[in-house]
Amino acid sequence: MKFLFVHQNYPAQFLHIVRHLVATKQHEIVFITEPNENEIPGVRKVPYKKPVLDVAGVHIAARELDNGARRAEVVYRAAHGLNHLGYKPDIIIGHHGWGEMLNLRDLWPNTPMLGYMEFYYQFDAADVGFDPEFPPNPLDFPRIRAKNAINHIALNLGATGQCPTRWQLSTYPEWARPQIELIWEGVDLDLCRPNPAVRKKTLKIGGMTIKPTDKLVTYVSRDLEPYRGFHTMMRALPDLMKARKDLKVVMIGGDGISYGSAPYPGGTWREVMLKEVGTAIDPDRVVFPGRVPYMTYLTALQRSDAHVYLTYPFVASWSMRESMAVGCAVVGGDVDPVREFITHGENGLLAPFLEPKTLARTVLNLIEDKDLNAKLRHSARAYAEANLAMGDYLDRYCDVIARLTGEHPVPLAEPEQPVAKKPLRIRKPVAADA
Questions:
Q1: First vs last Cα of the chain: how many Å apart?
Q2: Whole-angstrom Cα distance, residue 20 to residue 32?
Q3: Whole-angstrom Cα distance, residue 115 to residue 65?
Q4: Kind and range of the H or E element at 349?
């Protein structure tokens, strides 16, 4: 089969399925993307030049659609070159979020299209207005509504969508859901697994020494910002510091803005929160190592005595899945996207997102209750094995491709030469959040 993938940041969410398809040695795989250094043997990259975005004079409510239309135009040109050379894909797979796929139907009107549909924006539910500390401005509602313009055009292409969790799918209007497949994403369980030996070693992360006798609390986000509960976690630190002198905290993440807004009048959220609570925490027992190598991130999770995962009602992070696969004792924010993974008291604990003191008490109880801690660790890993196995994810993905194309991308293997059901081991360069 001929596969055409599209995403501005190759390979993005398609790393696992692309490597799985490559491993079969049955397919021709082309990937249209902005130029970058990432390479997967067996994949032909077709780069496009990033267009000028956020053009001055475009109304802010129309800016996202304008950016999407500009990307769609340059992607069309790259795809037109492929078409001119005789390339006819059997299926087109990509992410609708940046508008890149919007014009491809004009080149290949009868080719099945599977588009990643991550989230449907709302101004009166989900993330907007969830946190009273940052009340929404009604003047911004038109911009939020307009963020779905690309979603609506994509849904009218006669294509099929894909969504990674039930809750994210539920954000879409009822009329749209029948067009969107739920493809529950998986984790490399061989890579993301418990490692008891780590707990017996002295580690150094971000310049901080963590001894086997220390109690370690971990927190991870692509960027340290309110959307991922950074402000709540920071406000829980004074109570954590005061309660236990043997407790250390590693907070992995960058200082950029992935979601939401930058602090006013400037600076980073880390600077803002350190100004607020910095005098009440011991700087020798809290470290902010930034974005770290992936194996450092995994080691931190494997060593963690309690891992905190917080998010607004928004897209679930990869770190949520990976922390459970590692067998972390997770304390999650009590919101719908987290409840989809964690059942309180069974495979993790839940705490109100907006209550730092309750969060601190929950973390401390989890550290002090060894039986509960061990139970939740075991149950988190068991949950991941039952629900997040990479092989199951890839099987579901391939089944959807088969329904759309009429051909299964992983044909039945001869008994003496079975086709591997698991993808190649993935080595991400940095800890990443969704």
A1: 30
A2: 18
A3: 17
A4: strand 349-351
Label the pairing between strands 330-333 and 2-6: unpaired
State the amino acid at position 399 in one-letter form.
D
Domains of the chain: 2-186+389-405 (3.40.50.2000), 196-387 (3.40.50.2000)
The predicted-structure confidence for 83-138, as pLDDT tens digits, reads as follows 999 999 999 999 999 999 999 999 999 999 999 999 999 988 899 999 999 999 99
Concatenated DSSP letters for 358-417? HHHHHHHHHHH-HHHHHHHHHHHHHHHHHH-BHHHHHHHHHHHHHHHHSS-SSPPPPTTS
CA 272/CA 254 separation, integer angstroms: 14
In what helix (H) or strand (E) does residue 208 lie, and over which residues does it extend? strand 208-210
Residue 346 near residue 362, CB atoms below 8 Å: no
- What is d(CA 122, CA 321) in angstroms, rounded to the nearest whole number? 25
Taking the C-alpha atoms of residue 362 and residue 355, their distance in angstroms, rounded to an integer, is 11
